[in-house]
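Summary of Year 1 activities. Much of the first year was spent building the evaluation harness for sequence design. The harness presents a backbone, in tokenized form, and records the residue chosen at every position. We chose the following record to illustrate the format because it has been used consistently in internal testing since the harness was completed.
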């Protein structure tokens, strides 16, 4: 599925302003001021006006060494 989020405030992680972001599946294909899709391609277009977008953001709250779970996977 191709998805285009338009006019979102994008952070990568610094703020880069209002941008369009194009995804194919789970991959980010393009970040640009304006992206227009031509041809007979089915695109899910999402209005990002007034929204914040953090492409590539992951949950970075991890404990590499300790910090919980010392009792095994069940804890």
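For this record, the design step produced the sequence shown next.
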């Amino acid at each position: 599925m191709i998805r285009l989020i338009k006019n979102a405030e994008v952070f990568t992680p610094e703020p880069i302003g209002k941008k369009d972001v194009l995804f194919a599946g789970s991959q980010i294909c393009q970040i640009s001021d304006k992206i227009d899709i031509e041809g007979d391609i089915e695109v899910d277009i999402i209005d990002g006006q007034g929204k914040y977008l953090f492409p590539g953001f992951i949950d970075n709250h991890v404990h590499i060494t300790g910090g919980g779970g010392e009792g095994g996977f069940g804890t």
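The beta strands are 2-11, 15-24, 27-32, 43-47, 52-53. Quantitative recovery figures across the full test set are reported in Table 2.
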